[in-house]
UniProtKB/TrEMBL annotation:
It is an enzyme of class 2 (transferase). One of its GO terms (molecular function) is 3-deoxy-7-phosphoheptulonate synthase activity. The keyword Transferase applies. GO terms for biological process: aromatic amino acid family biosynthetic process. The keyword Transferase applies. Its EC number is 2.5.1.54. Residues 21-257 form the DAHP synthetase I/KDSA domain. Keywords: Transferase. This is Phospho-2-dehydro-3-deoxyheptonate aldolase. It comes from the Bacteria.
Amino acid sequence: LASRDFHPEDTVVETGNRTIGGAAVQIIAGPCAVESRDQLLEAADAVREAGATMLRGGAYKPRSSPYSFQGLAAKGLEILAEARERTGLPVVTEVMDQNLVEDVAAVADVLQIGSRNMQNFALLQAVGQTNKPVLLKRGLAATIEEWLLAAEYILNAGNSRVILCERGIRTFETYTRNTLDLSAVPAVKHLSHLPVIVDPSHGTGRRFMVAPMARAALAAGADGIMVEVHPRPQEALSDGSQSLDPEQFAALVREIRPIITAS
Ligand code: PEP
Ligand code: MN
């Protein structure tokens, strides 16, 4: 079902007033995690003002350490709902547990499946039974074939609105947090009809590399980017070192405008 052989035209996923895929380019931005009402509303206003088209923010966070900040959970979802009301931006947020799919889907415009859950097949089937678009992040060490087969689980469960997200893979390189595989963009576009978003924040782990890799992603044909933005990155409870401040994000949007309008 994910294959272009089966479905030759590009899939365009609609959510609220946005389309992902086709001619549109989406700029999804916001903090790694919802940390407080003030932090999220400040971030949401700033990214909206700078030109983001969708808002991201995790209420449930898949942290490597059980002692790290785990997210505000249900309270975080309430804050995201308020931010959507206030800014009009559709919300992308992660769901980690099949038992919480209904709760997260009640607020999210797009359900995010994190890298660590790319092969959580029960979760893939559960989001496949909703009517919400699903942003499927590539697994930490997943091949393109494994990633497309994960998408297949969602499609096969009855949900045709799948968006792929390249977020870097684990390689021998340690300078960057992950190795952002931009060659995956033309590869999945060749193999599949699904839209592809690139996350240069997790893909590099380093703030100064986010803008150049965002530009490169769009030049490679990505349908959009997802970027972490925090009002005060030095105070972030997660992923501060890869988060842009609002001014840096505004500069990035100005840089990519010509690429977007040329495409
Ligand atoms: C995220 O986008 O918040 C996230 C946790 O990313 P990943 O699953 O790609 O590590
Ligand atoms: Mn993050």
